[in-house]
Hints:
The protein is mainly alpha-helical. It folds into three domains: 1-113, Four Helix Bundle (Hemerythrin (Met), subunit A); 116-196, no CATH class; 205-289, Arc Repressor Mutant, subunit A (Orthogonal Bundle), CATH 1.10.10. The protein has 14 helices and no strands. It has helices at 2-17, 23-36, 39-47, 50-59, 67-84, 93-112, 122-138, 147-158, 162-173, 205-225, 231-242, 249-256, 260-281, 283-289.
Amino acid sequence: MVQLAGVRRQFVKAAMAAPFLDREEERALAVRWRSEGDQAALHRLAAAHMRLVIALAARFRHYGLPVSDLIQEGHVGLLEAAARFEPERDVRFSTYATWWVRASIQDYILRNWSIVRGGTSSAQKALFFNLRRLRARLSQHPETQSNVTMLTTIAKAIGVPRADVEMMDARLSGPDISLNAPLVDGDANGSAERVEFLVDDKPLPEQTVGESIDGGRRLTWLNEALTVLSDRELRIVRDRRLSDETVTLEDLGEQLGISKERVRQIENRALEKLRRALTNRHPVLAEVRH
């Protein structure tokens, strides 16, 4: 660990000692790298701007991640900037590279700050990196010290729903908690784990798949059995048993020109024919019935 810290100090010292580039020299290196793929030119251009990477990485040191990792990610952004930089435009490389370095560091923080992945939109990034600063500023004013007013003001300032601000505020207020951690702090052996108290009322995947397969099979069997019914029997069974809205015996009797008692008799006879057809073709149903 001591040796690693020494290497980091030497790296920072070397970056700070790298000579500055004037505009013409910077442009010449960028042209050589862009047009000729000159690796030496890229190295000099990147080395001269590593102090920029270190300065930007230091601004994000309060997020609990190693500064060396932030510098490394910033260096990736610096190389990306070098690959996209257009030297013919009248812009200094440091001005152009700052955005890429900052974006690379911020993306790394969002990916690694929590095991729970946060939003990646520009509004969500702005919320993540500005929430604490805005809260601290608003807390100094009496008219915005209430939590509801403060969160509403922050939501309007960043342009996100207040619910997003409340969720992000809760995430930033406490660390991640493992579901496999013991329910009682400090008890690594006897206490139940938090995951044991998560309840999901949905059926298990294998049960869902099984019911889907069985349901399709039963529907096929039923359609086959319905072929043994006469047209009148089929209509009565469909209207009485297979429709979302059940038709009454009286209504069916009026439609068919028979009494409701006769409709009931035909329905019972049709159901018995269906039962026999199903059990004759699929004996397993008879076993389940018994």
